[in-house]
Structure formats: structure tokens, C-alpha cells
Amino acid sequence: MTTVLEARSLAKTFVSSRDLLGRPIRKVQAVKDVSLQIERGEILGVLGETGAGKSTVGRLLVRLEEPDAGSVLVDGVDVGSLDKSARRALKAKVRMVFQDPFTSLSPRMSVGDSVAEPLRLLAELDRRARAVKVAGLLESVGLRAEDARRYPAEFSGGQLQRIAIARAIATNPSVVVCDEPVASLDMSMRAQVINLLRDLQAERGLALVFISHDLSLVELIAGRVLVMYRGRVVESGTASAILAAPQHPYTRALVDAVPIPNPKRRALRGGARLERSADDEQHDLPGCDFADRCPLVMDICRVARPDPRPTATGDAACHLVEGDRPAQPVVDGAAAQS
Amino acid sequence: MLARTAGEGAPLLQGSDEALLRVEGLTVDFGGVRVVDDVSFELMRGRTLGLVGESGSGKSVTARAILGLVATGGRIAAGSVHFQNRDLVRATRHELREIRGRDIAMIFQEPRRALDPSFKIGTQIAAVARRHLGLGKAQAWKHATQLLSEMRIPQAALRMHDYPHQFSGGMCQRVMLAMALVASPKVLIADEPTTALDVSVQARILELIREIQVERDLSVLFISHDLGVIAEMCDEVAVMYAGHLVERAAVESIFGHPRHPYTQALLDSLPQRGVGRFHQIRGTIPMPGEWPSGCRFAPRCDFAEPRCSAPERVALVEAADRHLARCVRTAELDLEGVE
Amino acid sequence: MSEATVDVFDPRRVKRLAGRHRVWSTFAGNKVALVALGVYGVFVFLAIFAPWLGAHPNDVDASAFLKGPSADHLLGTDQLGRDVLSRLIAGCRVDLVAVLEALGIAAGIGIPVGLFSGYVGGWVDVAVARVADAVLAFPSLILAIGIVGILGPGLTQAMVAVGVVLTPRFFRVARSCALAAAREGFVEAAIADGCTTRRILFRYVLPEASGPVLVQTTYSIGYVIAAEASLGFLGLGVRPPQASWGSMIAQGFAVVRQSSYLVIPPSLVVIVAVSAAFLLGDGLRDAIHSSTSRRQ
Q: What CATH number does domain C3-295 carry, 1.10.10.10, 1.10.3720.10, 3.40.50.10420, 3.20.20.10?
């Protein structure tokens, strides 16, 4: 098993407002400490709600954002250590499909030109060769070669997203990061895009990072999943196992909140409802990020942040999960005597 | 007059339940193109009716047409909407304005868009109270505060002074609900109220709607494309496809034993039912103006036969006890639903 | 997160044609703009074909000084016996060349700098924008006179001055388009595709600016012609005996006591030219705005 993409302790903070002199006033810690590994050909789901930081993680992986801390390794090479042209070359290996196909394709360029754009990274192809490749790519996503001449306005959302996928795989990448690829699409178009991703992944041995807020989608498509909350990974492991038997209270609340399309099951479900919502004002408190909303919170949760510890299905960062390491209270970054 | 078979529009639930809202043969055109075609249903008191369909099915236009909120270029071509011994289709603009927000209220998909960012939350809710209930400033503010706390917003009195940008999406939706409930309406039309919200927020809003419904004896028309939400919230479900109502039944029947292939196809294409792949309905939904004659779903239907496209229009028939379906073959088919 | 699905169907939302067709069809519906375009068509024609049209701007007809319109001289003669109509036609070429010179500088500097500055942002943008603001804040006529003072008199020098005055305007338009474009999803996608900054500016940002820049250019044509008139009036433009509309107004003004007629033809021409330029710009702006609505 080869690791095609790895992230180590990524962190990213955004400045939401500045004063007159340009100094930051309010900052948002979108990603606090995220590590992950993607093996060749696997589908990793990244699940979270608004404010979890999952989109930012995706952008850090594709280097649309520079991490404030931590590193991203592609095929074992730290991207941060490379020079500009080497980094650009790496963009061929880690590609992205964006959420909104209507805005990720330039309305003034033909679809063929958009798909051909990343091919410029691979200098060996001349114009004719590029056109041939574009035709092939369009066909592999279920469109026709002639469509290359047409413009985005002539296509439906589902078709546009498939074009975006064609653009993403144009450089034969090892990883494609999909940021909510079907969230902007009608229900009827989701199937075509999801199935296409699955098929391409199987045919080409692509690894996919599937970022989504939709549990049932992630369960359907992903092998492993990371559940994110407020910039950290709270639970990880096999998708079907975790979502069937969540170990972390947040994952459990998330699973309980998903409506089941079966009226008979309605009465059977209870589950605690989370108080307040994640995007309420929150201060950076010590301890677990979920402590202020967790139905099972204990005293230690407010004081010491739990490290991920192994569970039957993967890892969970929760004091309730018995691990083999006692939690270290966090006191200004220095480890304290227990 | 459009021909109707027996059973269409008749109450599905017997007894002393009264039908608060009765829609009969509602037909809406946009610039000469039919968008909603002969839709009939009833909303019983204290119950929730779900209107399900994809984009292009006409469900949102139907909901808005009930309140006379047809976009420019559109008109109600036929049908009636009976509410409190009045036909809203034939009501004057003045009468409709009285009813909107007071007797029948509506909440929409993007709660933030319904709020004016320059005014305090409290001011906006109070403004509705003053208009519909004729309350004075102080009284309206008090009423608004009460509503806000009824919507389970903590420290309501303080939050009344906040501006919309200080509220999260879920809280904005609660504000919308509060504004809708100001005049204690009897009917609430909810058009995809939770589609734009996180799933945990959605769960609480849905719970809130259920609780309010019981507390206020409210009848809800719930429009959604999400079958999970429909299963959670609704007592009765109407499925729309290409402007038509294609199936209507109690929620357990719709999910347990559907009588129309489209409903079955919708259930099959849920992610929960897929194994690695999504089940896809082949083809695409026909847009208004491109509806085929005969059964509009036939080109995509796994059970279609030539006779499905034969009649000019397929009639809505009573496929089972209090279960209507617009399908030529409904009596022969045995669809499995969800287990 | 927003998952707004478009559910309310509106059949009027038919497929949109590719941008260019729509711009032209909207523009063509605007009668006034078409007339303005026609006016400039005439000007360009005259400018190109002036020598073959029998214009004799420098011939002196000793028998007719400061005469009004007659069979020989359709628009009369000036104080040196030269045919006014011929001089107007010759002036056409002079003025249009002047426009090209001034706009060449203004657009040639303003657009690339503006696009770059708006796209990269940061302190570069802050610094350059402040410089542009400073130039913009300076009273334009005085600035132009000052530059001519440094460079010496002459039409080209005057047009360089006008070009410098106009540069900040093009800079601003280009910059604001670039600021907006930099946030577009497809620009982000291009970055993720590994495009260099230069390619992004050329291929993705510049097209977004083309509409507003075109509008700014047409408005500027009017501005340059008026500026040339002002500078020519002050004797800071063309050298005699070359005819430009502005210098013709000056000459007409010099003899206004004897003949109030002479100022009129060149003034009217300048009014028409400037108005047509602005109306053309308005028409283009409206046509471009109507085509920038994107399909949802």
C-alpha cells in the first residue's frame, strides 16, 4: 500500500477583519490540527458540517492555501520544501473538483479549452495532441467529443460537473479532491456524478478525497471517513462501521440527526439533540472543542483535550473512549504533571 | 372542464377531520406553457401533507399559487383553492393580502434572504405583528419577544436587539417561523425550509415544527425533495412529476407499498439503498413544454408498455383504499417500497 | 452551507447564447447607439479617405476671406481664405490620430498595470492605487498644460499629456474588474490547474474586463476630442497650418468680432463627436450589462 498523499498537523487561520492599519482583529481558526493519509486508489470521506474546516483541508491539500503550520506530502515529498516550478508540476498529481460547476468553469471559454487548461502543465503535448486528449476525456465522462466546442451555458449542472471531472483527471492525477461535488446539483443529477466518480476511481486507480456534509452519500461512496468538528478530526475509521456504531458523541449526534426515509423508523429514534449551533460565538477554550455541546461531557473534557485513541472501528478523540494513554491536561502548551 | 375520476379530491382520512385547505384541479401556466397540471389535494386539520418532487415537477409553483404568489408571466389557468368557504383563486388582491401571513403563512428555503440586514430582528417580527394584529409598538415588541422564545431561542429578549448577520442559519429560520406564526395562522406552508441548513440544525428545526404543530393545532403543507425529511414529518404524501400529481396516500403506504413506478424509482435512488453506486433513473425529467402525451414518466419507466402512452392523459385512479395513483398499470404492479 | 436548488420553474429562462451574440443583438436594438456608431463610421471614413475627397485645407482663395457658405465653399472660408469644409475633413484625420495616440498611452499603461494590481492585491496594489489616485486628483487641464510645458508644444506632445491624464481612469476600471475576477471560481480553478499569473491575467481576467474597458474607451474618445479642443484653443496643440477641430475653434474665436459664424462649424462638429462617443459608450454599457447575467 503506497501513501499517495499525506497531511501532518495542518493548521490554517483566516483573518476575518482588520483594523485601519491592516492588523488583524478577528481570526478564524478554520483548521487547527489535521493529519491524514491517503493510500493509492482509496476513497477517503471527510465529513463535517459548516465550520468544521473540511473545505479548507481540501484546499490545503491542493495547495490553494498555504498552511500556517504542518505539511503536505505528495508521494512522500514535502510540498513546502519545493521551489515554485516544482510545486506547479505537482499540481498535476493532486487535482480538485469544486462544489459549484457553474462558477468553476469560465463562461467565456469553450468547454474543451477549460478541460485542456491543466494539460499545459504537461509540456509535451502540442495543440493537436491536446485536442485529441480532450476528446477522449469528454467521452470518458459520458459526453461527446463535439461538445468540446460548446460553452458552459449550454449544459446542465450535472453535465458541467462531469466536465469539471474531466478537467480534474486530465493530468492523470493520483488524487482528486472533491469538495461537495454534488451539493449544488439537483437530486436527479447527483447519481450521474457520483457514479462517474466511482467508475473513474475504479478504472484508473484514483484516490478520492470526498468532502461532504451528507452522511448518506459519504457512507455510500467512502471506504474510510474522517469526521471533522471545528478544525479537528474527532473520529476516523471505516465509513460503514463508524456510521453504524459511532464512538464519538458528535458523530453519534450527527448520525441521529439524519432523517431516515422510512416512516416506520420514525418513532424508534431518539438521540440527544445538540444544543445551540456550531456557528454561535465561541471562545477558544481549553479542553475538548465539543465540550460545550456534548451531552456526555465530564469535568476532564473542559480541561484536557483528548488525543485520538483507538477504537474498534478506528480512532476517536474522546475521553469516554478507553485508550492506553492518559490524557495530558493542556496548560499553555506545556504538558503538566498529572 | 377537466375530467376527473371518482376519488380525486375526496378526503383520504375519514371521521371528524376537517379539510382546512382543499385544492382542486389547480393548473398554472407560464407564458402559455403549462407548469402545474390538474393538481388536487387536501390538507386536514392538524396534519402534515408532504409535497414531493424534483426540480421541474412544479411543486414550488403549486405551493405559491395557493397563496396567489405566481411570478410575473404566470397565471392560474384553472382550478380552485378552497379555504374557509372562499375560493382563493377567485379572491380579490385585497382578500388575498388579508389571508397571507394571517390565516395561511409561508416559510421559504433561504431564511437569510427573507430578512432585511439593516433592521433588528425584533423590529422585523414586531412589524409583522403590527400589520396583522394592529398592535401598538410596545405590544408588538412584547408579542414578538414571546414568539421568539417560543421558537426556543435562548435569551429571546436580548436577541431581539440583534441583527440578522449575528444569527446563524438555523436561528434565522426560527425567526422566519416566528414571523409566520405572529397571527396564529391555521395553515403553514413550508417550502424546503431546511434544505440549506446543516443536518443537526435541520433536525432541531424539524422537531420545532412538529412541536409547534401540536401546540397550535397547525396544519402544515411541507414541500421537499428529501424523502427522509418527508418520512419524518408527514402524515400524508403527494408526489409530483412533470406538473402532475402522480401519487397520493398516507405516508406509510407511500413508503411501504407505492403504487406508481416513479415513487418506487425515487425510493430506489436514495443513497441508503445503493451499494457503492447510486441507482439512477434513466433519462431526465421532461421540462414544461416538453411533456409527452400519455404517461409522462413512461419514457423512463422500467414497467412501461405501449399502452401507457396511448391515452391523451392518464387519469388518477384509486389504486387502493385511500391511495391514488396516476398509472395505467397500477393495478398489476406490485412495487416493494422500502422494507 | 447553501444548497439552493432551483425549484421554481420559469420557462422564460431559455438557453443563453454565447456572450458576444447577445451583446450585439442588444446593442443593435438601441437606435441612438447605432446612430452614434454611424457617426463614427463617417468620421473614420473621412479620416482615411480625406486626401481623395478633394479636400484642400491649405489652399487659399484670395477672393473669399471670412465668407459665409456659398456654392464654392459649402461651409464658408476662414480669415486666411481657406475652405472651412476642407479643413474640417482634414481635421477629422488629425483628431482621430490624436485619439489613437492619447488612448494608446492611457490604455497601454493603465490596463496592464490595473489588471496586475487588482489581481495580486496586497501592498503592491495599495501603493500603485495611491499613485493613480494622486494623478487623478490633480486638475486634469492643469496637469496636461504642465506636461506640454515640459515636452514642448505640438499635437503629439499634447496627446501624450492627455494620455497621462487618462491613464488613472483606465487603471481604475481594469483594477476593479481584476478585483472581482480574482474571486471568481474559475480563476481559482485555473490556479489549481497550475496556470502562471501571466496566463491567468491574459486568459481569465482580461476577458472579464473587456466590457467595461471598452466602454471606458468610447467615453474617452469623447474626452480626448474635447481635450484637444481645449488645448488647441490655448494654442498648445497642433502647429499651424495643420487643421484640427480645436485649433479651428480657436481661430474662429480670434475673429469672432468680425464674423460670429466661423466658430460654429468646428464647434458643432466637436459637440457631435463628443456626444456620439458618449452615446456609443452608453449603448455598449447597456448591451454588455444585459449579457452578463449568468445562468443559475
A: 1.10.3720.10
